[in-house]
Amino acid sequence: MNLILVLDNIRSCYNVGAILRTAEGFGVKKVYLSGYTPRVHDQNLLPHLREKLDKEIHKTALGAENMLEIYASDDIKNTLISLKNQGWQIAGLENNIDSNKLVKLGTPEAKTSIKDKLVLVLGEEVHGIDYSLHDIIDLFLEIPMNGKKESFNVSVATGIAIYAIMNL
Questions:
Q1: Which parts of 29-76 are beta strand (E)?
Q2: How many CB atoms lie within 10 A of CB 145?
Q3: In the beta sheet, which residues pair with residue 34?
Q4: Residues whose CB falls within 8 Å of the CB of residue 107, separated by 6 or more in sequence, listed in order
Q5: Does residue 71 contact residue 80 with C-beta atoms inside 8 Å?
Q6: Which pLDDT tens digit goes with each residue over 70-125?
Q7: Which CATH number does the domain housing residue 46 bear?
Q8: Long-range CB contact pairs, 161-165, < 8 A, 24+
Q9: Nearest to residue 141, comparing CAs of 124, 116, 150, 107?
């Protein structure tokens, strides 16, 4: 399984760091940061701001931020279209959406629906993936939940999803 992660509009440096650490642990090689997601080693920031963000991301990434290919995308829609044109399947990690493209992880349908070259898009912690990206996404992946809560923290959900995808 070849997997690329896209972190679009993730607010928390700690979530970004935790996702990077989890991604590296599962063997993900590339990560795209877009929207207002805090960037690691962002040369466009003033040095003191860059140092502050890097320090916060490092608290949970614990060095994984230096082990991955991390790219900033100023136009994630075009980045996703480009990846799609290169043969990558685009999947969004979402929950509680009404879509005929929704597939529950851990089901036989997931095993037959998910391809070997997958881009997994992660959206904003509260509102999910920006609606402007929905038309580019080939399928939405959902983690089945049995409790009363309707969602997991984005970094926790990412770990669950990567594990499920890597073990198809």
A1: 30-34, 69-73
A2: 13
A3: 8, 73
A4: none
A5: no
A6: 999 999 999 999 999 999 999 999 988 888 999 999 999 999 999 999 999 999 99
A7: 3.40.1280.10
A8: 161/93, 161/105, 161/120, 162/3, 162/22, 162/23, 162/26, 162/28, 162/120, 163/26, 164/105, 164/106, 164/110, 165/1, 165/3, 165/105, 165/114, 165/118, 165/120, 165/141
A9: 107
Q: Is the pLDDT of residue 150 over 90?
A: no
Closest CA to 97 of 70, 130, 66, 55: 130
Closest to 153 (Cα-Cα) out of 2, 18, 3: 18
Identify the domain containing residue 81 by its residue range.
2-166
Residue entry with tokens 């992946």? 141
Neighbour-count burial for 21-35, b at 16+ CB within 10 Å, e otherwise: bbbbebebebbbbbb
Tokens of 19: 């996702």
- How far is 1 from 132, CA to CA, in rounded Å? 27
This prediction's pTM:
0.96
Hunting for tokens 């100023």 — which residue is that? Answer: 74
Give CA–CA dist 117/112, Å, rounded. 13
Residue 19: count other Cβ atoms within 10 Å of its Cβ: 30
Indicate the number of domains in the chain: 1
